[in-house]
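Quick note —
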Amino acid sequence: MRTMLAASAVLALTGCAGLPAADPNQAWVDLQPAADDTLHALEVDERSWADTRYFEVTPGSHELTVRYQFAVAPGNIGPVDEPLWRDCQLNVKFKDFNAGQRYQLQAGSIGFRPWAKLYDEQRKLVGTGLPAGCQRT
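Predicted structure written out below.
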């Protein structure tokens, strides 16, 4: 039993260690979805981004595109028993990314409407996301 617990702990730590080291000459953007939802990095300046777990961008102005998947509770839909899953893209523009800074991109929803907010290291809101299309899944 102890061996299984130790192996599980090592595997969990390995998953966290899988992110590359942050480049001090770039800005890093962590992604944080709401509970039970998924948030993936898709594009930087309309070009595909290879790793869905984060963004790393040069200083300056950029547009980030994320994919946000979330459930709409039955109470927001009508007389149904199961939640309705939405698959949305959001674009977040920010004109002043700084080298060596960490930013956090949070996403959530109100009913059918997704939202995204970009915060700097001081937890100051520096950008908001605009929906770029949603579909049911």
